Structure prediction request, 360 residues.
Amino acid sequence: MLHPWFKYGSQSGLPLAAILFLPALVLADGVVVDRVYDPYVQPLEKELEWRSLVVGDAEDPALDRLQVHRLGVGYGFSDRWSGEIYLIGADGGDSELEVEAAELEAKWQLTEQGEYAADWGLLFELEKEFGENQWEGATTLLALREWGRWVGTANLALGYEWGREIESEWETELRLQGRYRLQESFEPALEFYVGEDYRGAGPVIRGSHRFTGARSLTWEFGVILGLDGVSPEQSWRLLVEYEFF
Amino acid sequence: MIEKIRKNYLSFLLCCMSIVPAAAIAAGGPVVELEIINHLFHPSELIVPANTKVKLIVYNRDQTPEEFESYELNREKVIMGGQRAIIFIGPLAPGEYPFFGEFNPRTAQGKVIAQ
Prediction:
């Protein structure tokens, strides 16, 4: 994901020099909190997805009430590959919400579910910001392991960002989720995020509802709390995904 | 000398013959087959050993795709028309685990019985 904090800094009139010299804040690249991906792909499956993130940090007005919204359309091309296109919008609180970036995403399922001790996949992402010549590419290793009703998922991402107005750099992120499969409509989970200048953990709940005609609606909602002084105090995340064939 | 080599070679062969099948069984595990015909699962009840990982091969004999779906088994797999899919299930505690075909849920019903 591109750095909405950087975008916010640019829009709010902060001098570019100030942005470049505040790496801990601005180039935290910030919004590490995102969904935790499983490594699975279903052929022919179409999906509409809305992801929303709202940051709350009373100590930092520049970040407080920052919103990032992603609207995606996806399709399963085969039993190994799926793709998704996103439009990404941000709203810094004072500014209007507008579409600022687009992202292409491809997921590659490497192993059959349950075949080995863990299931594996790879996620490839390429994001372009419209207003500025700014790009980010990332490859993420997806791993999932079951222990009865418990499911542990890990996403380890290696990304590179470049553009005229930012310093090109490599970055890594780790996202972990431990989930208990209580029932299809309600599953509690704990998530943990580590990125450049970000540490956060918090509870998430998720559920699915099936409709006739092989349609389903999945939702996730949670709050990730910053674990150090640099990370935002709260990152509220919501995901709604409608899947159909 | 030649006799010694021959004996060692025979010992090596015998050793391989005893190890290879054991390894194949250990690596392969139980295999169970399931067919989808006219939007029905055949058989509709699969008996598998408990506490053992099972390789389930699902043949979709219909021309239309079907989705093997089971929250209890934590499995979801689309099988294209006229093709097959491999689904690994378990190890399962003894019990019954229902599954259904999400494209034809009224007819495509079944369960795995682990015992």
